[in-house]
Design a protein that fits this description.
Layout (H helix, E strand, L loop, with lengths): L8 H31 L3 E4 L2 E4 H49 L15 H50 L5 H30 L5 E4 H18 L3 E5 L4 E4 L1 H17 L7 E8 L3 E8 L6 H4 L23 H11 L3 E6 L5 E8 L5
Parallel strand pairs: 4-6
Antiparallel strand pairs: 1-2, 3-5, 6-7, 7-9, 8-9
């Protein structure tokens, strides 16, 4: 924004200090002048001789003028020094903001001293810089991973087409089937990226949603997949009214159940899906059996394209955005996402959302 040049804050504070000091001094001098004028006799006997009131008042007026000039100079110099010391933290904050504008997010103000308004502002600005730095780093990793994930099916498609072009004896049906599989994966990845973007923008309409119904719909949809893997699906809980997007929350429940199925013990595993009503929130919890997971690994599973190398992989492992989408949808609904390893192996994921209240 283009602004016209104006007085600096330091100069404004200096003039304010000096003006206040001059005003207070003049009020004191005027009060003394009024008192002297009201109570001095016409002729006063002083140690230096006999003086009349007019001479005394003239002498006082001259002295008051000198005092006023002294107050003005003292107020300007003192105000300038005090304003400079008071605004020194603001200068450091401004310098940090300019560095951040130039792209440097690693700089921190780190103001020392006891807490006051400037320290609180500096601490808030440092926290903002730390969060921005983390988000920028995460976006860069996401862009790099997304490019890699999208490049893989395209490279495979190009290789298949090269083989078909150089080898006319290649069976067309087999080639078409392989291309269809690769293309399906690319479409799934693109749709997942679009869904993740929609959740991040919070561009959706909110309404009353029952998490228990969404959980039942998700389990019914994925029941054939669970049966194919020989898993048992168990659902329980009560009506859990939330406030959000039915489509996004259904996608959240579906991703959680799908994740619990594909990362499980084939033929002897179980998935538990339950809802819970709490005083201010409602919760959807999905647990599964599986291998024992390290807490450090669990904390990274919500990162985009992050797949736990210690987890069992299947042909339906997805594109690596399932839990990242869950995290994004949860944050878009002002909820919290908790991941923790189960003592007997497997993973427990809980999504807590604000409870819907009848208005």
């Amino acid at each position: 924004m283009d602004r016209k040049p104006g007085l600096s804050v330091r100069l404004k504070l200096t003039l304010s200090y000096a003006g206040f000091l001059m005003l207070a001094g003049l009020l004191v001098l005027m009060t003394v002048w009024v008192v002297l004028r009201s109570h001095l006799p016409d002729i006063a006997v002083m140690p230096g001789g006999v003086l009349n009131r007019a001479t005394l008042m003239s002498t006082f007026t001259s002295a008051a003028g000198v005092a006023a000039v002294f107050l003005l100079v003292f107020g300007l110099l003192g105000g300038w020094i005090l304003a400079g010391r008071m605004l020194a933290p603001l200068t450091r904050i401004t310098d940090a903001a300019r560095m951040a504008t130039g792209g440097s997010l690693s700089h921190r103000i780190l103001l020392d001293g006891r807490r006051d308004e400037f320290r609180e502002l500096a601490d808030a600005f440092d926290a903002m810089l730390a969060r921005l730095e983390a988000q920028v780093a995460e976006q860069r990793r996401f862009a790099a991973n997304a490019s890699h994930e999208l490049r893989t099916p395209l490279a495979i498609s190009q290789a298949l087409l090269e083989v078909a072009r150089t080898d006319p004896a290649q069976v067309p049906g087999e080639l078409v089937e392989r291309l269809h599989t690769v293309n399906t994966r690319a479409i799934d990845l693109t749709e997942a990226l679009l869904l993740l973007s929609q959740a991040d923008r919070r561009s959706f309409t909110r309404e009353r949603v029952d998490l228990s119904l969404l959980a039942e719909e998700a389990t019914e949809t994925l029941l054939p997949l669970a049966e194919k893997h020989g898993l048992t699906l168990e659902t329980s809980g009560e009506v859990a009214p939330a406030h959000g997007s039915p489509a996004l929350l259904l996608q959240l429940a579906t991703n959680l159940v799908h994740n619990a199925i594909v990362h499980n013990r084939p033929g002897r595993g179980t998935v538990w899906v339950r809802t819970e009503v709490r005083p201010k929130t409602v919760a959807l919890t999905v647990e599964n059996t599986g291998e024992t997971l390290a807490p450090r690994l669990v904390s990274t599973l919500v990162e985009p394209f992050r797949r736990g190398t210690e987890r069992i992989r299947t042909d339906h492992a997805g594109v690596g955005l399932g839990l990242a989408i869950v995290k994004s949808i949860t944050q878009a609904h002002d909820g919290t996402l908790t991941l923790e390893p189960r003592p007997g192996g497997g993973l427990r994921i809980t999504v807590s959302l604000p409870r819907w209240w009848l208005r």
